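Hey, can you fold this one?
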Amino acid sequence: MAKKDSDSLKRRLRNYFATGLLVLVPVVVTIYILVRLFVFLDGLLGNLIGGFLGSLFGTGGELRVPGLGLVALVLLILLTGMVARNYVGRKVIELGDQIITRVPLVNRIYSTVQQISRAFFAEKREFFKRAVLIEYPRKGVYCIAFFTQDTRGEIQEHVEEDLVGVFVPTTPNPTSGFFLFVPRADVIELEMPIEEALTLVISGGAVLPDERKKEEPLILRPDFLAFPEPPLTFVEKLLKKLRLKTPRPRLPKS
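Sure. Predicted structure:
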């Protein structure tokens, strides 16, 4: 009896510990990532601003104000965007691009980062359009992929089939994966949002997307559409206020 009680206590403690981990780990990891991100972004301009404030007020060192570097970074990004929107700013940026693209080694890094930035941050970005299902890596085996673009240009000219570009992410790191060109007829479109598909990939199938109930079509009677209810007359309104019933003409049937 005592052994059974001891096993039951151990089981409860183990369940409590697992439940506590399940609750605390996401919270702690989220707070840790946010704090590290804040420290990194704040430190980009925080050291420079701290040294300037220290020399301005004569403190003999840096005068750090937490969050001031992040605010300055946001203002700098907004100011850069404003300048890049006008004619003079665009010409200056184009001139800078021409200079950088002529520098060996630097031009490759700059061009790659620029293309990735445009794919993610451009206003008309078309990176991941929808979640799809394809047969990969062989027939009969399916995997989650993301439709990225219709195939155009030289690649489509060499192939008779209509191809589309899809990105196949890996688990648990969806930022790495494979980019494939597959026939459009072999792609199965999914109704789940991209966020839920990414969650499914990251969790290795442990977190399944919520089932969606298909909305039933709204069926309206033809006679209702063809012959709307006529408005009440003054006498009918008066009788209705007096709570007297009066026969209404029936609507004609279609």
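The helical segments are 2-57, 68-85, 87-100, 106-121, 154-157, 194-202, 222-226, 234-241. Let me know if you want another pass with a different chain boundary.
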